[in-house]
Amino acid sequence: MAFNPNLGRDLFISYARVDDAPVFGVKWVSTLLQDLRNLLAQKMGRNEAYSIWWDEINLRGNHAVTPEIRAALQQSATLLLVLSSGYLASQWCRQEKDLFFEVLGGKPQGRVFMVEKQVLDEDQSRPTELADLKGYCFWYRDERNQVRTLSLREPEPHATAYIRLVEDLATDISRQLKARATAAAPPPAEPKGTVFLAEVTDDLDPRREQVRRYLEQAQLQVLPARRHLEGQAFRDALEQALGQSTLFIQLLGEYPGRRPPDIPQGYTHLQLERAQARKLPIVQWHDPTLKLDQVESQEQRELLEAVSVYAEPLVLCHVKTIG
């Protein structure tokens, strides 16, 4: 039974079958959806409180969306798509996405949720209608800069990062379903301020997610909305986000981060320099257990020793008001 009685389904899952093929005995999409189902049941109150539609018995034909799937899409409150190279290569997946956006009048309206399973190939990019959509990033780069997909089989802290992302996804979907079920639901509260939360090295990504959740729970808007951009796209998004922000927060660690040829000072320093140029208040942090005398990069060590850097357990008591 649907939580939204005026619709046939609460959540439609769109994914490429190749992404659910067993790898070392595990189906990644199926495992994610089972975890999501259980968390949604807890947040919605019971297992029967909501309904999910996904093609478990391979109704898909060779070319066109079947009438059954078309009807399920048109009657669904929300769409969850699993973005990957396989998804973009699938004509079927593109048809599902296009049909749902047609129902929504071409805009996501808060009803589309995007799981990023992997880095897209160099010749691929997000479809235009997904360009500004918040993604739930289920991948990371390891110490050899190789892309890995998050799962409970990954070593810590990546297994914990997977758990928190599924929890965030379940929370956001349940909020959308509850809001749509209440015809007189009040509009979302206006954010109390806007914070720029700097991109970090991969080892600090779980900490960054912890800070992001804290800030959003405090009704603060967190920018940038899109992550993992490169080159000029990164510079453009950086300037746009800093122009809307009233505070700059940066988590620092042992490693200086990447320095591509077009950003010779590196991503870490570029973000800080542009925040300083805009005269934004700056809060920086590093783990108090980090031994600065063992940091190999002298430039990074000097950055960690700056007076604006806090070195204490990560509690965000420093972010009480946003001016």
Describe this structure in words.
- The chain has helices at residues 28-44, 67-74, 85-89, 91-103, 158-181, 205-217, 231-244, 266-277, 298-304; strands at 9-14, 52-53, 76-83, 112-116, 135-137, 139-141, 147-149, 193-197, 220-223, 247-252, 282-286, 309-310.
- The chain has 323 residues and is an alpha/beta fold.
- Strands 2-1-3-4-5 form a five-stranded parallel beta sheet, sandwiched between helices. A five-stranded parallel beta sheet has the order 9-8-10-11-12, sandwiched between helices.
- Helix 8 (266-277) links the parallel strand 10 and strand 11.
- Helix 1 packs across helix 5 and helix 2 (67-74) packs parallel to helix 4.
- The model has no long low-confidence stretch (mean pLDDT 86).
Key phrases:
alpha/beta, five-stranded parallel beta sheet, 16% strand
